[in-house]
Amino acid sequence: MSLDIQKGQDLIRVDEEKCEFKVHRKAFTENEILKMEKEKIFDKCWLYLGHESEIPNPGDFKTRRVGGRNLIFNRDTDGQIRALLNTCTHRGAMVCREREGNTKVFQCFYHAWTFNSKGELVGVPGRDGYPEHFNCDGKMNLRQVPRLSSYRGFLFVNFDSNAVELEEYLAGAKEYLDIVADHSEIGMEVVGGTQEYSIRANWKLLAENSVDGYHGFPTHKTYFDYVQSRGGQLTKDDLTGIGRNLGNGHAVVEYQAPWGRPIAKWIPAWGEKGKQEIDSIVQNLVNRFGEERARRIAERNRNLLIFPNLVINDIMSVTIRTFYPVSVDYMEVNAWCLAPKEENDDFRERRLNNFLEFLGPGGFATPDDIEALELCQAGFMNNKEVEWNDISKGMNREPQTTDEIQMRSFWLKWNELMTK
């Protein structure tokens, strides 16, 4: 079987009549596929940069690696948020080596060229060695990413200057970003600290896993046993909800479950004071949005995938997670905790405990998921004999939480972009 997706190689097979959806395992193992993904997906799609709360003050900055580029994510001295390519226009060295801080200028370590927080070149040692008109056109300033846009405090970049507007790209995912943002009356904020880990598996496996309700009970049995030991009552029938295709490759699983949300069945472990605080939070949501939307925010869980590599888990804690391929069988993952600015210290502590407890690198779920994905990658060594993954579950009925419409949504967009 030759590998030439640009000439229409059939890596995705869909047979609606037979209710079959197949993905060829070469999509996870071929270096040529990854090279094309970088060009056709990561160079063309909107990619998550960060949350506006991470750089609240003029001069604040973070350095981030996004879509294979080193960026400076900063707020300039006028308060404007920017995304600067972290490479000196002189000889190419990274201008900012610190991970975060506050500064009015960035000075290159190599030859001391200096740039202000807007990226403008403001200092060149040996300036008399250059003509008078040097940089009058601004071409030696730090480059800004072609596109930077935000939605409800979530900031995205795009390296394609001709890309569609962010809100058009987000499509149905906007509804779920609104739900997350509406948790707070005064605004959400990223809590300091980043989870960083790696997985020896293809990046698309984590995209699938993040909206896969099918694997939960067999893979995370230890966690469910733990929930029950704390007074929870948990069966497969408790996991009720729906998976949805949100357009443009985005997808969500939204479901009712007896864990995570503050109104969960095992809340007695928090005591009477905790119950009163929860009741107050829910009543505030009712006052702001009405009963139906308030209950949706407070009582339902959401696993949201924004194509290609942003996941927001609105479950025990609101977790923002991105993942990027380093090689065809290795990815790097970053995660942050998002919280209402106004929550009290007790709730913030519980939130951070939940941030670590389930989805943290050493939590109940993430080590299980890592092992599962790495086992998949190892199993793909047999793809000459066993060629196809099956992602057909639920094609014969209305979508349920444990069906696979979410993964099919991702793969249809992937195929569309890869075969253009």
How does this structure look, described?
The chain has 420 residues and is α+β, with helices and mostly antiparallel strands. The chain has helices at residues 31-42, 166-170, 173-181, 203-210, 216-219, 221-229, 271-289, 291-299, 345-357, 366-379, 405-418, and strands spanning 12-15, 20-24, 47-51, 60-66, 69-75, 81-85, 100-102, 105-107, 114-116, 121-123, 147-151, 154-158, 188-190, 195-199, 240-247, 250-256, 300-306, 310-314, 318-327, 330-340, 388-390. The strands form five sheets. Strands 13, 14, 15, 16, 17, 18, 19 and 20 form an eight-stranded antiparallel sheet that branches.
- Tell me about the largest β-sheet: 8 strands, antiparallel
Helical segment tally?
Answer: 11
| Strand composition percent | 25-35%
What integer value in Å does the Rg equal? 23 Å
Approximately how much helix is present in the residues? 25-40%
Q: What is the typical, i.e. mean, pLDDT?
A: 91
The low-confidence parts are: none
Total strand segments: 21
The best one-word shape is: globular
Q: End-to-end span in angstroms?
A: 21 Å
Q: Which structural category fits the helices and strands?
A: alpha+beta
